[in-house]
Amino acid sequence: MTTRTHAASAGDPLERSADRAFRLPVPALLGSLALLLLACLLSATQGAAGLPVGGVIRSLLDAVPLIEVDRTLSSQHEAVLWQIRLPRTVLAALVGASLAVAGAGYQGVFRNPLADPYLLGVSAGAGLGAVLALGFGLNLALGPVAALPMAAFVGALLAVTGSVLVARGSFRNPATLLLAGVAMAALFSAAQTFALQRLDQTRAREVLSWLFGRLAADGWHPVLLLLPYVLVAGLVLLLHARHLDVLRLGDDEARALGLKPARSRLLVVTAATLITAAAVSVSGLIAFVGLVTPHIVRVLVGHSYRAIVPLSAVVGGGFLALVDIGARTLTAPAELPVGVITAFVGAPFFCVILWRRRHDA
Q1: Helices (DSSP H) in 288-330: which residue ranges?
Q2: What's the CA gap between 261 and 42, in Å, rounded?
Q3: What average pLDDT does the segment 137-149 reach?
Q4: Distance in angstroms (rounded) separating the CA atoms of residues 128 and 122
Q5: At 189, which CATH number?
Q6: Closest CA to 48 of 333, 320, 341
């Protein structure tokens, strides 16, 4: 009893220190929301058929309950906005938020700032599961329960489990875990190539186009498919953000504060893997969003995951919405895969992080 009391009294300053360290900065929150809204507005107006900003805003306001505004868009432009642009914009925001919050979760649970769904092999595993589902006609859905995200989840879970096993559960050694993730990504990518070779030419071309990363939403269906997973898994990650802060202190300190490290890690990894798999199932492989976004947020607001997790979701959504504008306009009328642009942005960013870590060491 004395030991427990002593541990608790020793832990209280840590808890009070963590609480004092955490203040969700209002400027950062408002700035992130402004970025997201601006990115979504630009995404809704930019494209082959340019839509006037004022007309789009009036149309959106008129759709809000209890608000009546005269719409100025033509019926054709209304159809483009509500059936093409908005579904794609919302999908980009949801996928970006999913990958960013998953990256924040992985970085926190593995105590590894280089952890990312793509680098840990999670995206490759999810991609393999989705390729098998798409290639062999298992793209079936019953409400929010669909074969495609479930197949992606199984593949992603196998990949992250393989990375941890190869690293021998070494959460404290970023290099070991990163190399294990690279090995898993190579393995599952090879399996993707093998599966593609077994498909007929037409289906293989469709699957390959999907693998490069795309956000061409077919109406609102992909959004409705992804949304339940984002809400459930995202809520789990938000509720466990404080656990990630405590895990930064070490397992012994976490236990002294009443936390069960193994249980918290399992829940965070499962939620991050599920939300990654769901995002991959509707958008293909989009690299580095989960690496770049949490790092940007960490520079702005510090190291508390109670700030990093929610703000990563907002910034990630805005970031991918902006990237999608580039994908649609840079080579118009052709369209660049979104994953190509994020790789062009993320790969140099990753190199800079590695250089700085080596320089600091």
Answers
A1: 289-301, 305-329
A2: 43
A3: 65
A4: 10
A5: 1.10.3470.10
A6: 333
- Residue 259 DSSP SS3: coil
Question: In the beta sheet, which residues pair with residue 142?
Answer: 145
87 located within any domain: yes
Domain hosting 122: range is: 26-46+75-360
DSSP 171: S
Q: Is the pLDDT of residue 42 over 80?
A: yes
pLDDT digits (tens, 9 = 90+) for 81-120: 999 999 999 999 999 999 999 999 999 988 888 888 888 8
Distances in whole angstroms, Cα of residue 352 to Cα of each of 25, 104, 115, 172, 357: 26, 19, 15, 21, 9
Reading the block at residue 238, the tokens are 């938000």
In a domain, 239, yes or no: yes
**pLDDT digits over 299-339, tens only?**
889 889 999 999 999 999 999 999 999 998 888 788 888 98
- Residue 141 confidence (pLDDT): 57
Structure tokens belonging to residue 106: 């992985």
